[in-house]
Specification:
The protein is an alpha/beta fold. 36% of the residues lie in helices and 12% in strands. The protein has one domain: TIM Barrel (Alpha-Beta Barrel). Bound molecules: iron/sulfur cluster. Iron/sulfur cluster binds next to loops.
């Protein structure tokens, strides 16, 4: 008897979603098909991935806020990174924020509605003294706002450090795999993919929620993106930040600009279908690479970073919140609204009332037209 031919058109993508919603795992061929789908099929691919996203996360968007505790001056050579050894990128460079500075920085994101604060420091990995410093910051944030999750991202951990962070109240540890194992030597020479995997396992093993993602657009193939999405599934990570390469001047990947907004949506859809109930966060590069399709990404991803990134600026935080509201989505509420310091929790951020900008250029004026 002849084999049943694969479904075509919109039906194919919805059958993949049905399979995943029934508890099946997306296979590599189907994941590759998502990445290779045509622009004409894109909205059907998004619709299928969106069914999975809404099934697991409803209409909520988790808002995360980055605080860069230590910027630049890293001895590692990750080719994409503006903080790498020898980077000429004109970024801010500073050593550790003190506890008050870090808590104040975190507070800006918390007051805007973030339910997770991500405390990040550049470097190979922290010393025990530095872990102590970060633990103090974590304890301060948690005691003032216990409902806020805190994720630490400090590089490779050594013995006992994950446990110490956990004991201070950290909820999660981020360590990105960054790219597929088979592509890792093309993006870094000072450490390996196996080193990365080790830290992810170490943090997870200590009881911290595992946050690990990647950067797309670094010359990897579709097969390597699928390899990566499946590796993250195998590691059972809880959240996956999907970054799109920001090709900083002064780094080896300066000028590498291979993504378009539809590619970015296909990548997010593939990651969603491979990791159906995992938090998928649309991360750095969102504004640059998704452009006018940023809001559409939220029908597949269920999480974003508010405002600025580690060394680059994002769009204004108010625009991020407005984008969520425009998509008909809601900010995920923190589990505990009471603040331990007794202060009132701020009102939910309201969508900003936009004033109509009066035209003062072009016809009828002596100013150049907006064209
Ligand atoms: S990604 Fe992290 S480890 Fe690599 S150069 Fe940048 S700060 Fe250093």
């Amino acid at each position: 008897m002849a084999a049943t031919p694969p479904s075509t058109g919109a039906r194919r993508w919805h059958e993949l979603a049905d399979h995943v919603l029934d508890g099946g795992a997306l296979g590599a061929d189907d994941a590759l098909a998502v990445l290779g789908s045509s622009d004409a099929e894109l909205m059907e691919v998004i619709a299928a991935a969106s069914r999975v996203r809404f099934h697991h996360f409803g209409n909520t968007v988790k808002v995360n806020y980055l605080v860069n505790l230590k910027s630049g001056l890293c001895p590692e050579d990750c080719f994409y990174c503006s903080q790498r050894l020898g980077s000429d990128a004109g970024i801010l460079r500073y050593t550790w924020l003190d506890t008050d500075e870090a808590v104040t920085a975190a507070r800006a994101g918390i007051d805007a509605g973030a339910s997770r604060v991500c405390l990040v420091a550049s470097g190979t990995g922290p010393s025990n003294r530095e872990v102590g410093r970060v633990s103090e910051i974590i304890s301060s944030i948690k005691s003032a706002t216990p409902g806020v999750e805190v994720c630490a991202c400090l590089g490779a951990l050594s013995g006992g450090q994950a446990e110490k962070l956990c004991a201070s109240g950290a909820d999660a540890y981020n360590h990105n795999l960054n790219t597929a194992e088979s592509h890792y030597p093309e993006i870094c020479t000072t450490h390996t993919y196996a080193d990365r995997e080790h830290t992810v396992s170490q943090a997870h093993g200590a009881g911290l929620s595992a946050c690990s993602g990647f950067i797309a657009g670094m010359g990897e193939t579709h097969e390597q993106l699928v390899e990566l999405a499946m590796a993250l599934r195998d590691k059972d990570v809880d959240s996956i930040p999907v970054n799109f390469l920001l090709p900083f001047d002064g780094t080896p990947l300066a000028g590498v600009d291979t993504l378009n907004p539809r590619d970015c949506l296909r990548i997010l859809a593939m990651v969603r279908l491979v990791n159906p109930d995992t938090e998928v966060r649309v991360a750095a590069g969102r504004e640059r690479h998704l452009g006018h399709l940023q809001g559409t990404a939220l029908y597949v991803a269920n999480s974003l970073f508010l405002g600025d990134y580690l060394t680059s600026e994002g769009q204004p935080g108010g625009e991020d919140l407005q984008m969520i509201a425009d998509a008909g989505l809601e900010i995920l509420q923190r589990p505990q609204d009471e603040r331990a310091d007794g202060a009132e929790r701020p009102d939910e951020p309201a969508a900003q009332e936009a004033k109509v900008a009066i035209r003062t250029r072009g016809a009828g004026t002596s100013e150049p037209a907006n064209a």
